[in-house]
Amino acid sequence: MGLFKNLFGSSSKSEIQKLPTHKEDWDTYFTNVDHKLGSILIDLGFKSIAPIKDKASLIWISIQMNNPREDGLSSAEESDKLYEIEDNLVNALTKKFDCVYPGRLTSNGHRDLYFYFSDSLLFDKTISEVMVAYPNYQYDFGIKEDTNWTAYLNFLYPLPNQYQTMLNRKVLESLRKSGDNHDLPRKVDHYLYFKALSDRVAFIKQIEGLGFTIENEGEGSQFEYSYSLHLTKIEPVDYDTINETTIKLAEEARNFHGYYDGWGCPIEK
């Protein structure tokens, strides 16, 4: 409920249209909401097609938890029940209405679910029909026009550094499944792209002394970011180390009209 209020201020079955190409990509990350710890579950796949023009009505459902942790997140003993409620609400609404479910927020003792609808007529009746099975749970809901998908793009979607840590976590999980010991140093490859040669030159000068070796400088691509840079650095790939390195590279690349494209490394056991 805090998300909706912050974005928009206080506010107290049609023909289904074809959804633009969308590949689900669910992930989670921690954030702060009104100076309180929050956990966001988001379908990152909507980023490439948002905003969806015919789904401009944002509907939120805020469920008050009965046994939250002291930090306001869901407790282990209540998680299964919250998942059940969420699944039932999502299934009921997406089957009955032309809507999508891009994510949720858990914070301050509440779980807030967010939907984008084409036609929200009688959505409240469907919510009530689901929640009648959970008389011990208090809940609230609301609706607001969000043509630009502000709630998704400016709140639910992670900031650049948060997104980078999410990508890092996926790579580390893949390495872990292959038996990698993240604490062992190895040569780590980093890839970046820049719009102009002068941007790449300035970036290289900026990171001098940070322990990176230039492996290759490419150019001539037909794309907007046509000047590539391949760096390596000898270091372990534990979560804290790789986050610090990649976030530093990504931030500096943005300062010079470039972007950080990712990293890779051999498996060490």
TrEMBL record:
<dbReference type="Pfam" id="PF06877">
    <property type="entry name" value="RraB"/>
</dbReference>
<feature type="domain" description="Regulator of ribonuclease activity B">
    <location>
        <begin position="168"/>
        <end position="265"/>
    </location>
</feature>
<protein>
    <submittedName>
        <fullName>DUF695 domain-containing protein</fullName>
    </submittedName>
</protein>
<dbReference type="InterPro" id="IPR009671">
    <property type="entry name" value="RraB_dom"/>
</dbReference>
<dbReference type="InterPro" id="IPR036701">
    <property type="entry name" value="RraB-like_sf"/>
</dbReference>
<feature type="domain" description="DUF695">
    <location>
        <begin position="24"/>
        <end position="157"/>
    </location>
</feature>
<dbReference type="InterPro" id="IPR016097">
    <property type="entry name" value="DUF695"/>
</dbReference>
<dbReference type="Pfam" id="PF05117">
    <property type="entry name" value="DUF695"/>
</dbReference>
